[in-house]
Design brief:
It is built from 12 helices and 6 strands. By secondary structure, it is α/β, with parallel strands linked by helices. The protein starts with 11 loop residues before the first helix and ends with a helix.
Length: 278
Amino acid sequence: MNKNDLNPDASPEAAYGARLRSMREARGWTQEDLAERTEYSSVHISAVENGRKPPTLRFSRSVDRAFGIEGAADSFEREYREIRHGSLLEGFPEFVGYEGRAVEIRLYEVGVIPGLLQTTEYATILAESAVKRGAITDEQAQERVTLVAERQAALVRTPPPLIFVTLDESCIRRPVGHSAVMDAQWARLLEFAALPNSVLQLAPFAMGTRRPFNLPVTVLTMADRSLMSYAESAQRGHLERDSKFVLPMLTAYHQLQAEACSQAESVAVINQLRKGTP
């Protein structure tokens, strides 16, 4: 295929391929040169550039290393995730990429158990409910459930990240599915609390105005100790890398932890729910 035959507007995959070739040629590399740097064949490189083969996460990370743009805002991994997870909130695919590499994760959630701690059954019911409301398609629902599993798998590494989770009390009291689904989900929370690299706390309703956040928020600490935060509204997500905005959120998170129940108290509340005690 000749260069003029490429149409970046034809599809997200075509735009990915056209950008890949543009960056390769800007460095004066042939497809064989890039192939040597990525351990992929030149035939594979050509197929991705021309849109005959879709990019994969492994391929995207490999070309990011070759171009020296790992973790950058314009990385191919980020573009791949936006292609793969087009039904998700803006900013979320990029956040997931950083989450999988963070050494410390601090998150606060309201209303639902966060994806990192969801059972497959719980995640499936949430996705199916969105389909029934007409918010997403069946295919997008499956994509969401698959992403939950991928995010959880990315955190099982050596050494594992430190994970601090503070849940608004609504997360554990809101029924999702039948009682067996909730019991399994509560059990999953207890398993998480027992891990050596985790802290689980509940922010009880009684905290009232002492609760510093009204919306879900996550603060990530990367291997180089840089910080970033992610927050969502109903329509979009925002990944913040500027420390002057992230540090106040980290401070607020520490204040949240100080006011929340201890892990022992939180585990006791969840055990009471499993026993049917209010």
